[in-house]
Amino acid sequence: MMLELQDRGCHNINFVTPEHVVPQVVEALAVASDRGLTLPIVYNTSAYDAVESIELLDGIVDIYMPDFKYWSAERSRAHLKAEDYPQVARAAIAAMHRQVGPLVIGRDGLAPRGLLIRHLVMPGCLEETEEILRWIAEELGRDTYVNLMDQYHPAGRVSTEHYPELNHRLGSNEFERAQWIARELGIRRLDARQPHPQLLRRLAGS
Fold first, then answer.
1. β-pairing verdict for 41-45 and 145-149
2. Mean pLDDT of 166-181
């Protein structure tokens, strides 16, 4: 399948949440590489990954694309059912960064290698966003590529009965504030959709 995708002109091979099948992925990639696979390999994950799994992929994965969902154990326990998510995610993402470094984007606009961190800004959780961005800036570097996302909407079990604190969209300026926090922390490489310069000046004065 990977070789067929390469023949069809795909830009990369993207494995989504594959932590539980890392040994099989490694075996399959060895066969595909012997048969001519040259596309970048993307590891697309929630970041709830064992460091041992990430270490198996050293020299195999070209691009790591982890989420970083929550900073605090309390919200991770309440919303992810995994109190240890923050420390697991930090360890995994740090290991990914050691392997591939910051995201590299070629002249064609495609990325052949590096780390891209995604963070979905959640309603009422800007302190979580700030701590995550601060860790990225101070521990990984301010040239880390960060995709801040604003598309959260209540769905599934989220209701006035279950998780009422999440039963609404982002507030009117929460996402803009998250972008401002990133820039205040010196993170230079935010995903392309940026607030208008006039908005940034307004936020700077608020």
1. unpaired
2. 92
Q: Is residue 182 classed exposed, middle or buried when 0-12, 13-18 and 19+ CB atoms within 10 A define those classes?
A: buried
- Look at residue 198 and tell me whether its pLDDT is greater than 90: no
Domains and their CATH numbers in the chain:
2-204 (3.20.20.70)
**Has residue 192 got a pLDDT over 80?**
no
The model's pTM: 0.89
Q: What is the spatial distance between Cα 45 and Cα 54, in angstroms, rounded to a whole number?
A: 11
Q: For residue 19, what are its two tokens?
A: 């932590």
Read off the pLDDT band of 196 (50, 70, 90): very low
Torsion of CA 167, 69, 44, 175, to 10 degrees: 70
Helix (H, G, I), strand (E, B) or coil at 177: helix
Tokens of 158: 């989220």
Say which residue the tokens 């595909």 belong to. 32
